[in-house]
Amino acid sequence: MCGLHVPNVPNCQMSKIYKKGKQSRITRLYLHLHLHLHLHGWLLLKLTRPPKHLKGLIIGACSGGNMGNLPIILVPAMCKEKGSPFGPADVCETYALSYASLSMAIGAVYLWSYVYNVVRISAEEVAAGEIDANYYSLVADSEQRRLIDPSSKPPVSLPQRMSHSIRSFLEKANLKAVLAPSTIAAILGFAIGMISPIRNLMIGNDAPFHVVTDSAFMLGEAAIPALTVILGANLLQGLRGSGIQLRVVIGIVVVRFIILPLLGILIVKGALRVGLVPYDDKLFVFLLLIQYAMPPAMNIGTMTQLFGAGQSECSVIMLWTYALASVSLTLWSTLFLWIVT
User: Fold this and answer.
1) Is residue 108 part of a domain?
2) Distance of CA 243 to CAs 5, 254, 297, Å?
3) Exposure class string for 286-316: b at 16+ Cβ within 10 A, else e
4) Which domain holds residue 65?
5) Signal peptide position in this chain (predicted)?
6) Residue 48 lies in a domain
7) Residue 154 placed within a domain
8) What is the pLDDT of residue 238?
């Protein structure tokens, strides 16, 4: 499964960003308002008190939504519906692919820089038997373990303390994971799409390096089918069940399908009021809204498999959230369409 996933998704992100996007549209998407709240997962932990090895999984499932293959499938498809409020179908589909692809790219950076480290740190602390209330912190406590008698230690200047804290953070954050293929593809896509000289070299039939664009686009076309196969495999594992508490699953469903969409409406409405998001771009507003109603990201399952922490429980969570997403997305999409029109 991972062999299908790794080579195709980065090409999908990069090709659609620089082939579909325009500079003004890409710049506007830097105002991405999808707020991933760690607080929801933390509160759910306090309410449900799950086993220690599930803490990273629960926070990841609450804070990391599917910003990739589902928006790329759903949003362009809505452009083809009769009576769509987003204008001509061909123009709508072009911008829908651009917006959804950038959503995938931003989501990949977020997942592999933040959610990945949450799951990793939680798994490492469980293995070491050192779980504490601040398990989600990216700053290691190695400095405290090396403390000696203050009376015999020379004073340390503020710049030295800051430098040591930054080094500790970088060591704990695991930059190799942050610079995953999906993240590198997102960076390349942004660079090619926003820098005119590079874009002119890569995009268009007369571009000197258009063969690179065409090759990336062809490989990227296989990303969505590959992700769908991976999703089906995860859901099949969820059918076999596990010992996960029912209240944990219910809590994640409530957070992802009730609390976050309502919060998203408030945030996007506020952004519209202060002028961060243009009123006339209904498609962009709709995409910002629908991202709040998405089920957990599929990459969370990959992370749990990497660290051996909660694989079977993750499959159960994915099974129920994606099964309920068919109903939830229908209802929320109807409300979001009413809001943008």
Assistant:
1) yes
2) 29, 20, 22
3) bbbbbbbbbbbbbbbbbbbbebebbbebbbb
4) 2-142+167-340
5) none
6) yes
7) no
8) 63
Longest dimension (CA), the chain: 77
Three-state helix/strand/coil letters over 175-229: HHHHCCHHHHHHHHHHHHHHCHHHHHHHCCCCCCCHHHHHHHHHHHCCHHHHHHH
Distance CA 136, CA 56 (A): 8
Beta carbons of 120 and 138 less than 8 angstroms apart = no
Query: Residue 22 pLDDT more than 50?
Result: no
Q: Mean of the pLDDT values across residues 153-165?
A: 61
Given a cut of 70, whether residue 30 has pLDDT beyond it is no
Task: Please check whether residue 161 lies inside any domain of the structure.
Answer: no
Here the CATH number for the domain that contains residue 179 is: 1.20.1530
Cα(2)–Cα(254) distance, rounded to whole angstroms? 30
> How many structural domains does the chain have?
1
